[in-house]
Task: structure prediction
Amino acid sequence: MDQGLLEVLISRVADSENGDSPGRRKQERPKVSVVIPALNEEPNLPFVLPKIGEWIDEVILVDGHSQDATCAVAHSLLPDLRLVKQSGHGKGQALRAGFEAASGDIIVMLDADGSTDPGEIPLFLGALVAGADFVKGTRFVQGAGTADMSRLRRFGNRMLVYTVRLLFGGRCSDLCYGYMAFWKRVLPRLDLDVDGFEIETQMSIKALSRGLRVAEVPSFEFRRIHGKSNLRTARDGWRVLKTIMRERRRVGRSRRYEREHLGEPEVNLGAVGEHV
Result:
C-alpha cells in the first residue's frame, strides 16, 4: 500500500478553511507511534528499521540492557528514533515502558528480530480507522502464516486459544503473537501489569473482557534472522496459562462486585467480548 492511499485511509475529511462549515472542528490524521522492544538485536535491526515507512510519526526502541551495539545501530539507521532505556526486565515491562513514552494516537507493536513485517502496518491502521479499538495480528487465517512455529508450539497455542474462547468468549484465532495495534486512549482500560511474553495474552484478554471493539488481520511470521529467541516454550506457556486464569478470576471478582454493590444483573463470562 503506497503512502498516498494510506493517507486517505487514516485521514478524516478536512474542514473547509473559508468558514463555510461553522462549528466544525479541525481534524487531522491520527499520529502513529511504533514501539519496538529490543535486547541484543544489533544484527537484526538493519532488516527491520529501514522497512518502517517514512510516514510513521514516531519510532520508539526500548532497549532491555543490550550488551551489543543495538542502540548505536538503531540511531545510525533512524536518526530521529526515540530511545527508551528499560528500567526492569522482560518483554512485557519493555512494552509497557514504550507505551507510556509514546505520543501517538495509535500505537503499533513491532518485534526487532525480523519476525514481523513493517509492511503490514497499514492493515492494522485500516482496521483501527474502520472502527476497531484494538487490532490483533493472526497467523491462522487465509493470507497469513508462520515460518517460525514448531508443532509443539502450534498445539499449545491452539489449546490456549480454545481456553480463552471458553472463559472469555470471542472468536480469536491466535493468542501468543505480539503484532498488535491499538488506540492509545484505550491503554488505561487494558491496565497492563505483567513483565514477560505473557503480556500479549493479557492484552488480548483484557481487550475482550473490557468490551473493546477487537479485530484481527492476517499476518505472516518470519523466522528470526540472527540469534536465538528468548522465548522458552514450556516456561512461557505456563506463564501464559497462569495469566489466563488470573484474568478470569479478576473478571469474576469484578462481576460479583457489580452485582452486589451496583445492582448489575449477572453476566455469563463466556459471552464477554464477542467481537473477534
Observations:
- The chain has one domain: 27-264.
- Residues 75 and 199 are 27 Å apart (CA to CA).
- The chain has a mean pLDDT of 85.
- The beta strands are 32-38, 58-63, 82-85, 106-109, 134-138, 145-146, 180-183, 214-218, 220-221.
